[in-house]
Amino acid sequence: MSAVLQVEGLEVAYRTRGVRGRSVPVVHGVDFAIAPGETLALVGESGSGKSTIGNAILGLVPAAAGRIEIDGRDVTTMSRSARRGMARTVQAVFQNPYGSLNPWITVGQTLAEPLRIAGRSRPETSERLRWLLDRVYLPHDALDRYPSEFSGGQRQRVAIARAIALDPKLIVCDEPTSALDVLTQAGVLSLLRELQDELGISYLFITHDLAAVREFAARVCVLERGRIVETGRSEEVCDNPQHPYTRELVAAAPVPDPVLQRERRELRLAAERRGAASS
Amino acid sequence: MTVAPISDGRVRTGRIRTNGLAVGALAFVALVVLAVALAPVLSPYGVNKQDLVRALEGPSASHVLGTDSLGRDVLSRLLWGGQPTLLGVLVALIVFVVVGVVLGVLAGTLGGWFDALVSGIADILMSLPGVVLIFAVLAIFNQELTPAMIALGLLGSGSLIRVVRATVIGVREELFVSAAIVSGLGPVRLMARHILPATFAPVIIQASLFAGAALAVQSGLGFLSLGVHPPDPTWGSIVGEAAANLAKAPWLLFVSGGTITLVSLALALVGDGLRDVSAARRRSDGGARTPVRPVAATRPAGAPAQEGVVLSVQQLEISFGERVVVRGVSFDLRPGEILGLVGESGSGKTISTLATLGLLPANASITGGRILIGSDDVTGADDRGFEGIRGRRVGLISQEPMVALDPLFTVGSQLMEVLRYSTSLPASQRRGRAIELLTRVHLPDPAGVLRKFPHELSGGMAQRVAIAVALAGDPELLIADEPTTALDVTVQAGILDLLRELRAERNLAVLFVTHDLAVVADICDRVIVMQNGAIVESGSAEELFANPQAAYTRELLASTPSLVRAS
């Protein structure tokens, strides 16, 4: 089966502000692919370029070099209007559910927007809206309410409903749970998993949290300063990290078990002391 | 899967809540505009009808607002005079809004050289001496008011250009705009639906403020007899005539000046009211909270402070008005102990922590129980009551170290400031002590860090500086409110290592507030789990993780993802 997303040699650069803005490369030659119905995680710390890669795939920042193929079509060379047509294929769920919904319009208007642009009729749209709310377990009266009336978890459900409105093949999830409480996080991840089983969506799951990667993604790419340093099955990368940076990440992440965590901490501190002594 | 019901308490209060004063002001402005528009119908006398016998009379049944020096009816002249005055304001306002919004939106959207050009123009407009230019325009256009008012609108629009540009740039960074682009919105719809609506509130506010200013300028011109064609009145020219007769008929000035003052004031109030409504709309909780005065806490004859307890919270109850948000919370913290306070948002963990430092928001108060720091009862104490406690005996580090540090001052000046009031060190030794503190929190090149501004530090370095600040007064208790939540995992590990070291070295007690059970497992000796303002379970960390009793604790543990496969 061909990949839903194929990224080859992707480079992204930002221009610094001002008239004599320089171009600063932040992503250097990144390659990965996602199969239909698969979840791939991009994990890294701040400044690793993980969100930038997601934004390049979504067409929010231009690629400086390389190819991004979504569903077999190269989006890096597309015209702007053709790129807008890709909304049916690739969608997004962002980190901050408070910022990702327009506070001035109702949830119904937010959800109807992609449908209206895609040319759905009014009755089709209103039927679809009810279907979407059922899918994300929100009551139908949510349509006439404003985002401020919802909790963070409920807003994230609205954002997920918007993302699946056009039946996309791929959703870029940029830290979709990191602003949420633990129980709400678990609820959102299980909702995403359920939708994947039902609709066969692929996810690009961008996160800083290795524990969530192990829980949610089949495969993972570890990013360090704009480069992929390790790729593999999530469990293998978490249990047996190969690259020194991945090892550092795994060693630094605490686990919810005080006894086990003490052992891990002592191993990490011992390794750090050895490192300090040898250097 | 369960779904929390949507609370009805969050209904759009921002929209419904009306600011009585602003509504009254709006009604007043509308009434004045209507009356002025209907001057031909409403005015009891002709605008220039003289009756020299009855000059400079006070209010009477036949002349409600009295007469002027030529015996003309003041009410009629105010109504007629309002027409050129308010029309002039309207012309200026239209130019102000059109130029400001169009240039502001284009600059904010297009960016690049166009933005630089427009920003330059705005700067020039704002720096021009407006009144002088308006005089010049009046001279060129033979005392015609309309060109002068157009010039006023243009000159004023610099500030609106800036406000609109900044709003547009801000909104374009919002995630909902990214989401709309991803949804396939074209640039025109994006502008109409998501970007322009965000500029409404600031534009209306700026416009109402500008209208007041334009009225003042317009009146000033009339007062100087500029742009006036006697005998036809403007409000300004009526003030001018009143000033000329100030000694004989002071009443006149009250009427004419009062009209202008009231309308200006009303316009400002309308602007204020609109700003409140738009702010309430954007706030996520929407609700207007009424501040309550702190109720004197009922102090039970609770157990006296135990020896060796740094912090003792006994049967603490905290309320927002009638709503009790924390109830029956009790715990003790001993030297050298790290106590975790765990819960989700709304569990009351943060508000309980703020109470121990006397930092409750104005609308919250302690309604029961007590808080002891060492042997001092600080329940409901004010800032003076906390003197000698905050900084000296209790230090605080929070989630956002960047927020805790003042961006305008160097690390050195902030640290030395804290050393000045929380220690008795002489000035000559403070710098040495500051370097010592920065060294203690493992910052490389401490002397260099002293000279840095907060924005020059990474998140992890800033948190280390915040810890150094908290340690400056050599406290026995450190309150750490989600200190690693905003940090990368490798940086988090370093900060937690540092806290453990400080505990071992100074026998420091730490109250560690977090929502992250993995962090709790790493750093805490004892754990308190809170839900809905009450403690549901507490115990040693090992005991609680191995054998959780409360259903809620079990649910939390089950929902926390682990990097390591459970054995």
UniProtKB/TrEMBL annotation, chain A:
Keywords, comma-separated and alphabetical: ATP-binding, Nucleotide-binding, Transport
CDD domains: ABC_NikE_OppD_transporters
Domain named ABC transporter: residues: 5-250
Pfam families cross-referenced by the UniProt entry: ABC_tran, oligo_HPY
Claim: Transport is one of the keywords in the record: yes
Signal peptide (residue range): none
InterPro entries per UniProt: AAA+_ATPase, ABC_transp_ATP-bind, ABC_transporter-like_ATP-bd, ABC_transporter-like_CS, Oligopep_ABC_C, P-loop_NTPase
Molecular-function GO terms, alphabetical: ATP binding
Family label: Belongs to the ABC transporter superfamily.
UniProt name for this protein: ABC transporter ATP-binding protein
Organism: Naasia aerilata
Species classification: Bacteria, Bacillati, Actinomycetota, Actinomycetes, Micrococcales
UniProtKB/TrEMBL annotation, chain B:
Keyword Ribonucleoprotein listed: no
Major localization listed first in the record, in broad terms: membrane
Annotated GO MF terms: ATP binding
Pfam families: ABC_tran, BPD_transp_1, OppC_N
ABC transporter domain location: 311-557
Entry annotated with the keyword Transmembrane: yes
Keywords: ATP-binding, Cell membrane, Membrane, Nucleotide-binding, Transmembrane, Transmembrane helix, Transport
Family designation: Belongs to the binding-protein-dependent transport system permease family.
SUPFAM superfamilies, sorted: MetI-like, P-loop containing nucleoside triphosphate hydrolases
Domain ABC transmembrane type-1: from-to ranges: 82-271
Membrane topology of this protein: Multi-pass membrane protein; Peripheral membrane protein
TM region(s), chain numbering: 20-42, 86-110, 116-141, 148-169, 204-229, 249-274
Compartment(s) where it occurs, according to its Swiss-Prot or TrEMBL record: Cell membrane; Membrane
Source organism, top-level taxon: Bacteria
Record's protein name: Dipeptide/oligopeptide/nickel ABC transporter ATP-binding protein
PANTHER family xref list: DIPEPTIDE TRANSPORT ATP-BINDING PROTEIN DPPD (PTHR43297:SF2), OLIGOPEPTIDE TRANSPORT ATP-BINDING PROTEIN APPD (PTHR43297)
Gene3D superfamilies on file: MetI-like, P-loop containing nucleotide triphosphate hydrolases
